[in-house]
Write a structure and sequence with these properties.
The protein has about 280 residues and is α+β, with helices and mostly antiparallel strands. It has helices at about 5-20, 130, 145-150, 160-165, 175-185, 195-220, 225-235, 265-270, and strands spanning about 25, 50-55, 60-65, 65-70, 75-80, 95-100, 105-110, 120, 250-255, 260-265. It folds into two domains: about 5-130, MutM-like, N-terminal (N-terminal domain of MutM-like DNA repair proteins, Alpha-Beta Barrel), CATH 3.20.190.10; about 145-275, Helicase, Ruva Protein, domain 3 (Orthogonal Bundle), CATH 1.10.8.
Length: about 280
């Protein structure tokens, strides 16, 4: 699933290339992705694009005809197709193509088994309910310990689920929640209500460091290399059975309450050793 560091790299790549450009045409649209009645994607034809922005995991394109907002779901992405190629040899299923005035194009694709990409044409990004409800963004320089404490509260909810709850904190998914909790030395199943002050301080530091570091590492990479770079950078996520890079203990796959996580049992312990 695309998470905020990779989406930020995508946004920076696109903003550099499309701002000031005119949309020459929109085609190949799968009607199932459009969530705004009466405002089709084709209505953006002829509009000038002024900026590309990130809202958590959402991408917003400011244009003279409104804001196009795209959510990738679990397996969506945007493929950049420069005028004259090179073109993808094995293109992923296309759900919309936005052609620009000089022949370059953005192709919104869905690589999963079910269609989860969604798109809206709205007057303002906050008109999309998911954006309006977003919590603080840890990538922002303004993200503070107070923001984290407000997001966590004293809730009897497992901390991994809270990290991924977009109304609590914006932009974190399954992979980075595992990485953050490993860095913070916290079990994914511990409840926010029982976290001590030093636990929260480690969690705040880990959240900011992991996400901001990932943004810096992904910046400037070709779009088709972002996923591989993310996977390669993981310390514990997706590495069940391998050695923890910190202590050498075998990383385990932990399934709980319909969720799953990869963790180091020595670094992160169980609920008892995490304050629960």
């Amino acid at each position: 699933m695309p998470e905020s560091p990779e989406v930020q790299a995508l946004v920076e790549f696109l903003d550099e290339r499309v701002s000031g450009r005119v949309i020459a045409g929109v085609d190949g649209v799968d009607p199932r992705i459009v969530k705004t009645r009466g405002r089709p994607l084709t209505g953006l034809t002829g509009a000038r694009m002024t900026a590309v922005r990130r809202y958590g995991k959402y991408v917003g394109f400011d244009t003279g005809a409104g804001c196009l907002v795209v959510s990738f779901g679990r397996n969506g992405w945007i493929r950049w197709q420069p005028s004259g190629g090179p073109f993808a040899e094995t293109p992923a299923p296309l759900v919309a193509r936005i052609a620009l005035d000089d022949g370059d194009a953005m192709e919104i694709v869905e690589t999963g088994d079910f269609l989860a990409v969604a798109a809206w044409v709205v007057d303002a990004p906050a008109d999309v309910p998911g954006i309006a409800a977003l919590g603080p963004d840890p990538i922002s320089a303004d993200f503070s310990r107070e923001d984290l404490d407000a997001a966590l509260g004293r809730r009897r909810k497992q901390i991994k689920a809270l990290l991924q709850e977009q109304t609590s904190l914006a932009g974190i998914g399954n992979a980075y929640s595992d990485e953050i909790l490993h860095r913070a030395k916290l079990s994914p199943t511990v409840h926010a209500a029982v976290l001590a002050d030093d636990d929260r301080e480690r969690l705040y530091t880990a959240t900011a460091e992991i996400l901001r570091g990932a943004v810096a590492d992904r910046r400037g990479l070709p779009l088709d290399q972002l996923k591989a770079a993310k996977v390669a950078a993981m310390a514990v996520h997706g590495r069940g059975g391998e050695a923890c890079p910190v202590c050498g203990t075998t990383i385990v796959d932990h399934v709980f309450g319909g969720a799953s996580a990869q963790l180091c049992p020595a670094c992160q312990g169980d609920e008892a050793s995490s304050g629960a």
